[in-house]
């Protein structure tokens, strides 16, 4: 029979409560697409994407951006223009888990289906009429849509594919808030058909259940970001 001393018992209690803490905790949200582990910490250059400035040297300008009232040029294939203000534009949001976007739409302008891998988005329409929507994950892939007018607000949950289309006769403007300092954007068509190098057509013909000609056509398009 093993005789357990008080110290061993205390160690087991502490160890198991540590384990249960680990079991209840979840992963912190990454602030970059990936972080390949380094064996040699002398080669590490940054943590969470950015160094921190000495707080004594911070100024109001670190938390400031000017010009989000200016309409953006929407003369591109999609007829829309996204101005994202993340930690790269406002260094003061570093580690604060927040960012902002202005989205301009010409008539029929589209912000095409995309996802933000690290953020939920809440969108407010200021001008125009937008048909917006998101699709839930597998297996249901339920589409939630709404036609939004000025003052209307809509939420796009983290990671879900969503879009906004200008269905009014005028330009449209919306502002979006996102709960990451670096939400990331994956535009579905660009990622799937515009990857560099291209994904093998063998993958895409089977995935999309279409003829190789259709995939060749799509992969030959010039996929730009708005
Ligand atoms: C968005 O608008 C800015 C300023 O109007 C312009 O410099 C930029 O090229 C536009 N982006 C796209 C994708 O059209
Ligand atoms: C998904 O679809 C199934 C089958 O129709 C249904 O039972 C389930 O409630 C749906 N789940 C959600 C979250 O809508």
TrEMBL record:
GO MF annotation, one: manganese ion binding
Cysteine-cysteine disulfides: 35-52
Subcellular location field: Secreted, Extracellular space, Apoplast
Residues the entry annotates as binding Mn(2+): 114, 116, 121, 162
Ranges for domain Cupin type-1: 66-216
Signal peptide: 1-25
Keywords of this entry: Apoplast, Disulfide bond, Manganese, Metal-binding, Secreted, Signal
SMART domains named in the record: Cupin_1
Binding site for oxalate: 111, 116, 121
One GO term describing the cellular component: apoplast
InterPro entries, alphabetized: Cupin_1 (IPR006045), Germin (IPR001929), Germin_Mn-BS (IPR019780), RmlC-like_jellyroll (IPR014710), RmlC_Cupin_sf (IPR011051)
Domain of life: Eukaryota
Pfam families for the chain: Cupin_1
Record Gene3D superfamilies: Jelly Rolls
Predominant location category: secreted
PANTHER family the record matches: GERMIN-LIKE PROTEIN SUBFAMILY 3 MEMBER 3
Protein family (similarity comment): Belongs to the germin family.
Name by which UniProt lists this protein: Germin-like protein
Species per Swiss-Prot/TrEMBL record: Nyssa sinensis
UniProt lineage: Eukaryota, Viridiplantae, Streptophyta, Embryophyta, Tracheophyta
């Amino acid at each position: 029979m093993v005789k357990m001393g008080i110290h061993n018992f205390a160690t087991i209690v502490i160890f198991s409560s540590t384990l249960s803490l680990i079991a209840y905790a979840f992963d912190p949200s990454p602030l970059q697409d990936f972080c390949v582990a380094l064996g040699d910490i002398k080669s590490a250059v940054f943590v969470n994407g950015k160094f921190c400035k000495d707080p004594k040297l911070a100024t109001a300008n670190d938390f400031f951006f000017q010009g989000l009232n200016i309409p953006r040029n929407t003369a591109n294939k999609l007829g829309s223009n996204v101005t994202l203000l993340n930690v790269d534009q406002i260094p003061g949001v570093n580690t604060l888990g927040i960012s902002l976007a202005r989205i301009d739409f010409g008539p029929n302008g589209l912000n095409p289906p995309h996802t933000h891998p690290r953020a939920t988005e809440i969108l407010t329409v200021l001008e125009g009429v937008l048909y917006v929507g998101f699709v839930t994950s597998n297996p249901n892939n339920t589409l939630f849509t709404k036609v939004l007018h000025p003052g209307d607000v809509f939420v796009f949950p983290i990671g879900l594919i969503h879009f906004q289309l200008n269905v009014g006769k005028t330009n449209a403007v919306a502002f979006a808030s996102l709960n990451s300092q670096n939400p990331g954007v994956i535009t579905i068509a660009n990622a799937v058909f515009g990857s560099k190098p291209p994904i093998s057509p063998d993958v895409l013909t089977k995935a999309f259940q279409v003829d190789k000609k259709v995939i060749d056509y799509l992969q030959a398009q010039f996929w730009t970001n708005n």
